[in-house]
Amino acid sequence: MKKKIVCLTLALLMTASQAVSVSASREDDLREEQAITSQQLDATYSRMDELANAKAQLESEISELDSNLVNVMVSIDTLKNDISNKEVDIIRTKQDLAKAQKARDKQYESMKKRIQCLYEQGGDSAWFQMMLNSEDLSDLLTRAENTQQMYEQDRKNLDKYVKTIDEVNNLKTQYESDKAELEEMKSSYEEQSYTLQCQIDQKKSESADYENEIAYAQQQATEYANLLAEQTAEIQQLEAERIAAEEEARRQAEEEAARQAAEEAAAAEEAASSEDVEYDEDGNPVENTDEDTDEDTYEESDDVEYDEDGNVIDNAQSGEDVEYDEYGNVIDSDNTVSKEDYEEEQSSDSDNSSSGSGSGSSVVDYATQFVGNPYVWGGTSLTSGADCSGFVQSVYANFGVSLPRTSYEQQNCGTEVSYADAQPGDLICYGGHVAIYMGNGRIVHASNSVDGIKISDNAAYRTIVSVRRLV
Predict the structure, then answer these.
(1) pLDDT of residue 133
(2) Which carries the bigger pLDDT value, residue 43 or residue 168?
(3) Of 292, 350, 356, 447, whose CB count within 10 A is highest?
(4) Residue spans with biased composition (Acidic residues) (predicted)?
């Protein structure tokens, strides 16, 4: 009878499994799609980090170019002031030159009149006339000396005039040369200013392109995250439906088995009452003893054991290493304890043995040893390179904790806790990224191809999807 019930139950369960096979197949497909979407999301966030770093580099270059442009503009303003001062000096020099030219013309006219007067009074015979008109030799010498002084004074005035004209001309030439040099420098600086402005405009255009790419990548990341959420919701719904279907099938199987067992028991009882009745020599019915019934019942199970008094020993309570004293208490290596205390201790030991060998702090200490090592997409090596989920998987593998490969799968591992209750060693899960919490708001993670494995001071730098406790 028991075999019939078991067979019936298995048949009903197989029927239920066939009924949910389509749902399970769809669930497997969704999980594969989830893994692909998670990888795409990880790649998108990695690309966003690379674009952000390139944009930051461009902004640094733009800042430097802006600084150079400011210096050039200041130099241009200084040159403009110097050129204005030179123009004032040139105007002043021209005025001095005009004054010197007037003095020259005046001196020239005065000298011409004196020379004319001398020749009119005697021409080539002026000296002879001077001698004849002199009253004596002393008067002659006086006249000759006066004439010589006049000539010498005219010569000095002429030399002074020529020197003045030369100085003014030289100064004018120097000022004009200085002005030309300043004008050339001004032109050069203006050309540098134009070149710098062009470079700044180009860098700003490139920065705008990066900004657009980052915005597009962010849009893609949002779409991937939404798709992951939809896939998760559908998987959860399929799981709930599958579990409900299995539970319903199991319930129906149990009810059917119970019904069949009841029917067979009733039929057996009816058959026994009609066929197995024995009579004694006086014609009275003879009933089976309880002792015979018990023996037959116990013989149906090969695993039933009895003590010396004929009582059934409960296998769940028995163990090869457990000994009892005369009062039924468990004897341990130190003393005798009650059976209840022993079972509670055994349950506690079982819970402790399943909690894992590594503490959160030891996980953090181990993970931080690899800070500075490279980020490699799809990698799992803590030394040669790993991505975010590969890093977490390899760190926890050192403590005997087996984790799935992708960040999305890892966010379903362990026990969910709030970020406010996060402890060292917990997983901080983001959309397409995962990190190990260090405590005090810090995380260690395989960030991107630029930074590699690093420590970040702000665990909430992105939206936290889940916090999972593994140890």
Answers:
(1) 65
(2) 43
(3) 447
(4) 272-311
Going by C-beta distance under 8 Å and a sequence separation of 6 or more, which residues neighbour residue 65?
196, 199, 200, 203
Region 360-469: CATH code: 3.90.1720.10
Q: How far apart are CA 137 and CA 290, in angstroms?
A: 193
The residues that are catalytic are 388, 433, 445
Q: Which pTM was predicted?
A: 0.36
Token pair, residue 334, equals: 């130190």
How does pLDDT run across 114-141, given as a tens digit for each residue? Answer: 666 655 555 555 555 655 566 666 766 7
167-192 burial by CB neighbour count: b if 16+ within 10 A, else e? Answer: ebeebbeebeebbeebeebbeebeeb
Q: How many residues does the chain have?
A: 471
Sequence ranges of the domains in the chain: 11-252, 360-469
Q: How far is it, in rounded angstroms, from Cα 189 to Cα 197?
A: 12
Contacts of 44 by beta carbon, 8 Å cutoff, 6+ apart: 217, 220, 221, 224, 432
CATH topology of domain 11-252: Helix Hairpins (1.10.287)
Phi-psi region of 123 (alpha: psi -120 to 50; beta: other; left: phi over 0): left
Residue 267 burial by Cβ neighbours in a 10 Å radius (0-12, 13-18, 19+): exposed
Lowest mean pLDDT among 72-86, 184-198, 327-341: 327-341
Give the number of other Cβ atoms within 10 Å of residue 343's Cβ: 14
